[in-house]
């Protein structure tokens, strides 16, 4: 299953916000498996480095940007991270294909990926269970948290 969206984050004068960045799309992780993004020549997409700083993704209209979603984080048992990101209001236009599972699909890592004794970080759930749970969360929440088996601390710097 998939979904295609087109985003336009209009340019908003920073002076109207006391010189602070104006956010076009608030911080979130993508819920699906993989997001494939193509943008115009305008930057604005930023990744949360979890230490309070943000790194900008350079715009390149001749490249695709792939982003790991929450479902792929679970499918790889945390090996691939679904990073928090946001978009600044900056005349940016992007088109994104979100590749997601079907509603009844169980999301859990395949056995061939698991090392001996490796424990699943997440309880098994279906994509529709995730979606129902996500409706009760805020956009910026860790929407995988209700499915964690125990407190997992996944940071960008984990090996
Ligand atoms: O507009 C962008 O570059 C990214 C938008 C986004 O993060 C999303 O739609 O999930
Ligand atoms: Fe996103």
UniProtKB/TrEMBL annotation:
It comes from the Eukaryota. It holds the Pfam family 2OG-FeII_Oxy. Coiled coil: none annotated. InterPro entries: IPNS-like_FE2OG_OXY, IPNS-like_sf, Iron_ascorbate_oxido_reductase, Oxoglu/Fe-dep_dioxygenase_dom. Residues 6-101 form the Fe2OG dioxygenase domain. This is Fe2OG dioxygenase domain-containing protein.
């Amino acid at each position: 299953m998939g979904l295609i969206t087109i985003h336009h984050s209009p340019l908003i004068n920073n002076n109207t916000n006391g010189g602070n960045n104006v956010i076009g799309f608030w911080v979130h992780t993508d819920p699906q498996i993989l997001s494939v993004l193509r943008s115009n020549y305008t930057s604005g997409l930023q990744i949360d480095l979890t230490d309070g700083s943000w790194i900008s993704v350079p715009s390149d209209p001749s490249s695709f940007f792939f982003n790991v979603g929450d479902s792929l984080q679970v499918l790889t048992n945390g090996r691939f991270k679904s990073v928090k990101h946001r978009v600044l209001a900056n005349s940016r236009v992007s088109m994104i294909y979100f590749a997601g599972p079907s509603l009844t699909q169980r999301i859990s890592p395949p056995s061939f990926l698991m090392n001996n004794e490796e424990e699943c970080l997440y309880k098994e759930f279906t994509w529709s269970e995730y979606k129902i749970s996500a409706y009760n969360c805020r956009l910026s929440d860790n929407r995988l948290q209700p499915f964690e088996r125990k407190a997992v601390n996944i940071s960008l710097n984990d090996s």
